[in-house]
Amino acid sequence: MPDSNTNPDSNADPTPDLSDAFTRPEDVQLLVLDVDGVLTDGSINLHDDGSETKRFSVRDGLGIKLWLDAGFPLAIITARAGDALMHRVRSLGIDENLVIQGSKNKSEALDVIVAKTGIALKQTAYMGDDWPDLPALRRVGFPMTVADAEPEVLDAAGYVTERIGGHGAVRQAIAMILVAKDLYTPPR
Hints:
Layout: H1 18-21, E1 30-33, E2 45-46, E3 52-53, H2 58-69, E4 74-77, H3 83-92, E5 99-100, H4 106-117, E6 124-127, H5 134-137, E7 142-145, H6 151-156, E8 159-160, H7 169-180
Parallel strand pairs: 1-4, 1-6, 4-5, 6-7, 7-8
Antiparallel strand pairs: 2-3
Helix pairs in contact: 2-7
């Protein structure tokens, strides 16, 4: 968020208006997620044979299903690669063509996703938690993060969940967007 004290325009309003800085959640058409620290708690379980496992939240899975059932695309960009993620992707019905694993540059990977979907960056929400996510977060219309993200990521986000990564943060973010679109009403 820009610092109003460094604005060279002395007539500028000293209070930044986030509605002008970021896309409104109801205008989001594409959701892009990081994996480690967002869909998981960031832990990697390594076994004696060298294999690894990841833990995913069923709450996040329900949120993803709600997003997809509402007709919106969901993409995943991750620096790591593994079969566990692809099993989760298939079980949730995420388009495998919108999953980029082993990304060395998440901003470039974001360009690939945007080209595949035809949805503008301004209508895109990206949810990441760590430094490698910052270049992508700074380009989208609605940058989001989890409660336990790195401080620089928290500063770059337009929306911060109350929940931590791997514990329903994705569902919370999706519910917030779908409520803003009048497409979801949480049960009371």
